[in-house]
């Protein structure tokens, strides 16, 4: 099903120097970006980072303090929601309980007096795979089915941009994962630009072509999911998008295309191209799944970076075992080991070595807080260090 938006074609969405202040608090702080037409874009970040406010400004539900919103060449900054080629899908679905699924989807078309409503509704229900449930009421559907109805009702109006505000937050884990696949399929089939707001890292990485990680009203990093996961530019991004082991170190030498860093009596290599700074204090990062864990000392420290430590926790989660390893300097590192075979496993109290390929290291600015982006016990997000180096 090809997309045919209200403006005749799908247009880029552009935000230009967008700012939103609430009583002296800056919720959105000078955001500028272009979301290409027909892409699946995710705004990812913790509660209070400004992502939902940004979405509401695009939808016309909030006025910006300053800045502009463009869809194609059309400036929609001061246009009311009903005059924008935009539709929004909310977490609570907002379906009409007294109407059938068919009539929920047809609602917008009927209000505008459109022709050939039956064909359009039938095509849209086929797209979301709900044709056989057209005569049911919303209460007779599962949460995932209701969410697909909400998407169909929004898409049938042929918007240039579909905004999704935490659309899967009310679903259980298994259904949420199924809906991630379904939403991506629908977006590819229809070709409309999707802008998805979420705090769920898996959702963002599973569905989006591009992810923008937001923190304190700003975009810290934007790119393809694999790019920002493998090569984060800040401690906040490294910690918030998945899990990361971040260790304070100092650059002491160079060896070709690698930095030689020293940390707590260890020397490690970090590719120069994977470090945001190449001298002085630095933070060395490594993802838990890149670590290899083994009993005893490391055998090939020339080819790899290595650390010794003591296992303090081992959690079997089916596809892998997750270990916490306390280092000699007291920091606990996370390592994942895929469960490829049975037999004896490493246990709490065992002395182990952690090794990783030098090419898998990344380097962050030394002045950053290694806990930025980590959830503390109260559920708050640790503040990123703001002072300059």
From TrEMBL:
Pfam families for this protein: ABC_tran, TOBE_2
Gene Ontology MF annotations: ABC-type polyamine transporter activity; ATP binding; ATP hydrolysis activity
SUPFAM superfamilies noted in UniProt: MOP-like, P-loop containing nucleoside triphosphate hydrolases
Keywords tagged on the record: ATP-binding, Cell membrane, Membrane, Nucleotide-binding, Translocase, Transport
UniProt keyword annotation of Cell cycle present: no
GO annotations of cellular component type: ATP-binding cassette (ABC) transporter complex
Stored InterPro entries: AAA+_ATPase, ABC_SmlMolc_Importer, ABC_transporter-like_ATP-bd, ABC_transporter-like_CS, Mo/tungstate-bd_C_term_dom, P-loop_NTPase, PotA-like, Transp-assoc_OB_typ2
ABC transporter domain segment(s): 13-241
Phosphoprotein among keywords: no
NCBIfam families, alphabetized: potA
Identification of the protein by name: Unannotated protein
Biological source species: freshwater metagenome
């Amino acid at each position: 099903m090809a997309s045919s938006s209200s403006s005749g074609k799908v247009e880029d969405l552009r935000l230009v120097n967008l700012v939103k202040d609430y009583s002296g608090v800056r919720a959105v702080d000078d955001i500028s970006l272009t979301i290409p037409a027909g892409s699946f874009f995710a705004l990812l970040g913790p509660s209070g980072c400004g992502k939902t406010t940004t979405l509401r400004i695009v939808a016309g539900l909030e006025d910006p303090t300053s800045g502009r919103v463009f869809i194609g060449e059309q400036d929609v900054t001061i246009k009311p929601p009903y005059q924008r080629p935009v539709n929004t899908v909310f977490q609570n679905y907002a379906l009409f309980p007294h109407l059938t699924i068919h009539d929920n989807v047809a609602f917008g078309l009927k209000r505008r007096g459109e022709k050939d409503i039956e064909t359009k509704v039938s095509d849209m229900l086929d797209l979301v795979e709900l044709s056989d449930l057209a005569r049911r009421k919303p209460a007779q559907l599962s949460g995932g089915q209701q969410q697909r109805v909400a998407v169909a009702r929004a898409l049938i109006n042929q918007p240039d941009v579909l905004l999704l505000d935490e659309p899967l937050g009310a679903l259980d884990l298994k259904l949420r994962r199924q809906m991630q696949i379904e939403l991506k399929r629908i977006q590819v089939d229809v070709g409309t630009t999707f802008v998805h707001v979420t705090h769920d890292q898996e959702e963002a990485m599973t569905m989006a072509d591009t992810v923008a990680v937001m923190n304190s009203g700003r975009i810290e990093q934007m790119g393809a999911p694999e790019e920002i996961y493998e090569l984060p530019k800040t401690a906040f991004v490294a910690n918030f998008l998945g899990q990361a082991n971040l260790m304070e170190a100092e650059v002491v030498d160079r060896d070709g295309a690698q930095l030689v860093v020293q940390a707590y009596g260890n020397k490690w290599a970090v590719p120069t191209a994977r470090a945001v700074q190449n001298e002085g204090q630095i933070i060395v990062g490594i993802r838990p799944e890149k670590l290899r864990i083994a009993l005893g000392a490391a055998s090939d420290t020339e080819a790899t970076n290595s650390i010794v430590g003591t296992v303090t926790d081992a959690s079997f989660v089916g596809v892998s075992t997750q270990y916490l390893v306390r280092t000699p300097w007291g920091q606990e590192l996370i390592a994942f080991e895929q469960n490829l075979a049975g037999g004896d496993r490493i246990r709490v109290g065992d002395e182990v070595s952690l090794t990783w390929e030098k090419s898998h290291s990344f380097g962050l600015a030394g002045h950053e807080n290694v806990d930025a982006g980590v959830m503390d016990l109260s559920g708050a997000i640790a503040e990123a260090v703001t002072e300059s180096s």
